[in-house]
Amino acid sequence: MTTGNGPDDGDETPAPGTPGGPGQFSEEEIAAVTGPGPDDAELDGVEAAAIEEDSDDTDNVPDLQSSFEKLLAKSRNLSPDRIRTVLESVLFVAERPLSVDELYQATGIPREPILQALDQLSGIHREGISGVVLYEVAGGWQFRTDPHSAEYVRRYLRVKPQRLTRAAVETLAIIAYRQPVTRPELEDIRGVDCGAVLKALMDRKLVKILGKREEVGRPILYGTTREFLEFFALKDLSALPTLREFHELTQEHREIVEKEAAPPPVAAGTVAALSDPNFTKRMEKNEAASEAALEELEEAMAAAERSQKVSASILESPPSPEKGDSEGPKPE
Questions:
Q1: How do residues 21-67 score in pLDDT, each as one tens digit?
Q2: Considering the domain 64-145, what is its CATH architecture?
Q3: What CATH topology corresponds to 166-240?
């Protein structure tokens, strides 16, 4: 039994224009409209017309001040969830960290709701939970990939991990903590020439020239850049560990290394025992007792070995002959 879609219920062929049925146009007519026609070559010499609006037309450019005022009025009615989604969108397309003021200028959302939304977003997008993590770096906020996924992201992007040489790290650390600092001061601390390392750090935009010192020779002053903060994921220079924290961290690492490389533990009070005048006599007495115990152990082992030999000889000897056998040996 079939359901008829055409004039005749018994006809199984769908009517034209219905899904699965023949169209109103033939295949030749459709190909003539949609396919490349033989006359397309004549458009090769024709210049394409402009189909986008000209942004240089000042008559069509809206007033930025009035637009921002409208944006402010609209942002007052946004819910907390909507504010969060707006900030997510803006931060997602941003090429660099955005400060709260920049987010305010972009969205018109008041600063207090922005801070509350950023705090919520940092809880949602955090390491180990989300593949995209919200970081506060270089005085702003930025979405970055989760560090745990770095291996996969690098493989997809076909990039090598960025690593600095020991000389570069040492020079950069001195500049970060002593800035503004001159090249002679760097070389005095490191004890080697720093010209090549300084140039490489400036090429990487991790170090910049801050000016010149007002003294004889006017040496150049160097300092860190915004890219330095972004490279090491630092909010600002105050996020660097203090000297006290550095020394505590160094002491902690030193204790870990000493613990792992330490020799087997010795008995407590060894130094005090060695300083005891009777220690030698006790050691000689203990040594004599140890030798005596060792001799007793050797004698016991020798007796056990003799017993083992006797037992083996008994087991290996032939069975005794039956009584009445004249050829066999007589029992004693």
A1: 555 677 777 666 666 555 556 667 777 777 776 655 555 555 556 67
A2: Orthogonal Bundle (1.10)
A3: Arc Repressor Mutant, subunit A (1.10.10)
